[in-house]
Write a structure and sequence with these properties.
By secondary structure, the chain is an alpha+beta fold. It has a domain of 225 residues. It is 28% helix and 27% strand. A hairpin with a 3-residue loop joins β3 and β4. The longest helix has 29 residues. The N terminus and C terminus are likely disordered. The protein binds 2-acetamido-2-deoxy-beta-D-glucopyranose (NAG) (4 copies). InterPro entries: DUF7728 (IPR056145). This is DUF7728 domain-containing protein. It comes from Hyaloscypha hepaticicola.
Length: 368
């Protein structure tokens, strides 16, 4: 996002059915700014920068929130809240990002973890303004990400149903993300299904231009949930089990093109039943480094064995390079080599000649 644009960004709000009802210059962090609208609550969809930056507020019905205590520790609370979605584009406008994760033209594989901060329903333009200001500052968190969403009520890692389809012949696309459930990141706390019948689905409308550039349309909105088709409960094939073990089968791809990513069974080190999970349980924090070491050792060992094999075959190669044809040839060669070796040292030859003579004499004596 361009810094200069931020200093006087235009905000327009769009209501549930997608009609922009107001547009205002708003930077509530500047004291002189018109405080008029700063305490207003955000609508479900807030167009911050037309075409490239929209904030969506998806009410999360009955979803628990998390209060972090200053002195450490936390507590599960039950404030009314909404999921905060930052809908933006990559720098060259070729990828659509949802809370900084690329979701279009394709959802990454393995499926991205989507984290959604939770905000109060009356989240104000002032809070959003503070949030956006914060994202423009460098911040030194361990993962390089800022915890910028002001006045949040915690956040969740989401299970989601992702679905995309073309909306028109002229490059229009619709991307739907349904937050199916979430987990607040504290191991001991339960996973929660977001299964209220009131729960809505985030629908992002975009336009994909010929050159691949994307544009986020202001008609982005919240839509009703469509009852999910029954998931197939077929037995996994052996191949699927192997794929899952190596972490490839991240979702249940439903027949109708939905991609469902569930975190209910997973922890931070991969889902149970995957290699990553197994190794993490056994070896701690660096399973992939360990795999690299194992694979490296095995390859190194094989290379060494091959090297020895090559060395040995080189040493014992026949002078003609064709190898022994049969046992007689082999014997002949050994004799030859014996003779050559004998010729190498005068002393040895003399000695063996003498021995030969002695033997000859013995033979003669025996004969005599
Ligand atoms: C925002 O979305 C909720 C559903 O989650 C809906 O009940 C409400 O009317 C919407 N608000 C506006 C201003 O459209
Ligand atoms: C846009 O950027 C991504 C990486 O951020 C890159 O892979 C892609 O090739 C770029 N596309 C164009 C058209 O420049
Ligand atoms: C929204 O996401 C973009 C892309 O990751 C990021 O540059 C920006 O700071 C985010 N804004 C907010 C308010 O989270
Ligand atoms: C939002 O609502 C809560 C109570 O639900 C209240 O304590 C808080 O002051 C309100 N914030 C704003 C900005 O109106």
């Amino acid at each position: 996002m361009n810094m200069r644009r931020w200093t006087s960004w235009v905000m327009s709000t769009v209501f549930f059915f997608g009609n922009p009802i107001s547009a205002k210059f708003l930077d509530c962090t500047v004291p002189a700014s018109s405080a008029e609208h700063c305490s207003d609550s955000l609508a479900n969809i807030t167009v911050v920068e037309s075409g490239e930056f929209i904030i969506a507020k998806l009410q999360c019905y009955g979803c628990p929130t998390t209060a972090r205590h200053e002195k450490g520790g936390h507590e599960i609370t039950h404030e009314e809240n909404a999921l905060f979605f930052n809908i933006s584009l990559s720098q060259n406008h070729t990828q659509l990002l949802l809370n900084s994760k690329p979701i279009f033209p394709s959802l990454a594989s393995p499926r991205p973890n989507l984290y959604a901060p939770q905000i109060p329903l009356n989240y104000s333009f002032s809070s959003l303004s503070t949030t956006i200001k914060c994202t423009q500052q460098p911040c030194g968190n361990f993962d390089g990400k800022c915890d910028c969403v002001a006045d949040n009520l915690g956040g969740v890692r989401l299970s989601y149903d992702y679905y995309t389809f073309s909306s028109s012949a002229s490059g229009g696309w619709i991307i739907r993300v349904d937050a199916l459930g979430g987990h607040n990141g504290y191991m001991a706390d339960p996973y929660v299904d977001f299964d209220s019948p009131l729960q809505k689905v985030l629908q992002i409308n975009i336009e994909q231009h010929q050159n691949g550039r994307l544009e986020i349309l202001d008609s982005t909105r919240l839509v009703e949930r469509i009852p999910a088709p029954a998931e197939s409960h077929q037995e996994m094939s052996t191949w699927d089990k192997i794929r899952k073990f190596f972490g490839f089968e991240d979702d249940m791809a439903r027949e109708d093109g939905h991609i469902v990513y569930l975190i209910s069974e997973s922890d931070y080190y991969g889902r149970p039943g995957t290699l990553k999970h197994l190794l993490h349980e056994v070896w701690g924090n660096y399973p992939w480094r360990l795999i690299a070491i194992i694979v490296g050792s095995v390859l190194g060992g094989l290379t060494l064995i091959y090297g020895i094999f090559r060395f040995v075959t080189l040493v014992y190669r026949s002078p003609t390079g064709q190898g022994a044809k049969n046992a007689r040839d082999e014997e002949y060669k050994l004799e030859e080599r014996g003779r050559l070796l004998d010729g190498e040292e005068e002393d040895t030859r003399t000695k063996s000649d003498e021995e030969g003579r002695l033997l000859d004499e013995d033979d003669e004596e025996t004969e005599a």
